[in-house]
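The protein record now logged underneath.
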Amino acid sequence: MFASRFAKRSTALARGFASSARAERKVAVLGAGGGIGQPMSLLLKQDPLVTSLALYDVRGAPGVAADISHVNTKSEVKGYGADDIASALKGAELVIIPAGVPRKPGMTRDDLFNTNASIVRTLAEACAEHCPKAMIGIISNPVNSTVPIFAEVYKKKGVFDPKRLFGVTTLDVVRSSRFLAEIKGLDPKDVKVTVVGGHSGVTIVPLLSQTPQGKDVKGEEYKALVHRIQFGGDEVVKAKDGAGSATLSMGFAGARFANSLLRAMNGESGVVEPTFVESPLYASEGVEWFASNVELGPDGVKNIHPVGALSVEEEELIKACLPDLKKNISKGVSFVNSA
């Protein structure tokens, strides 16, 4: 159901584009054989803005590509194995990276660091060599650290452009919309919640006071809602009982972000998505990467929106967010620079 809605939404948007929307766009998915990569690739196959889909993984990507290629939409799909990442990336204008190991019960995103950090560093080196001008969307956890890792590799290679590097935090917004809508008995499409900060635990800060449907949520109900938004991933990990983490919802969120970025690349104005980028908002406090609403444009980041007016509760959430976020970012930077 969500796939068909996504396709209809994308098609409707595409009809309203100028001729620039017909530009050929190659999208590469690194980690396409995994739990996030497969459903996200399926959704990208249905996106009319994607003309070429390159699916890469150390195992399974050619099979996923063969399967998805039978879907009767116009885009071409090719799969690439462990030894052919160069071909997957050549000519890519957008690279989405869900590669890495998933969380298991009892694991935090930081527990994933050592394994996923190495994977992301290797993929960053490949992207720097084969598609240095591509837009990069990173899903691999822990995002608060993997995005800085990617940036540091690019800096060492001399190809870093902060406007083209994004941490995909869209799932936090998707969850916020769904969870608040459940409380209010509303359709989630009518509930839009701004979420700022990072992409793990207390670094996730939903700004409910800025949402008409959320400003009157108070007391214990407010605390429970914020906790569910911040730790929604744990809910899924527990429910899957060791079989994985949030893959389907993250696949949906990743495809939504990719569609928004492609629309902006094609010249559509006013495209705003939450995303973790190099940001001036809290740089004075040593936090150089921060998620907020970002207006996207043909060259990537066009305008970083301020967090706006905060409630007393949200100011406390920001205070709790910043120290953790600073540590996460420093951990990623140190991983590359101490190697």
Summary: Residues 1-21 have pLDDT under 50 and may be disordered. Residues 287 and 323 are 8 Å apart (CA to CA).
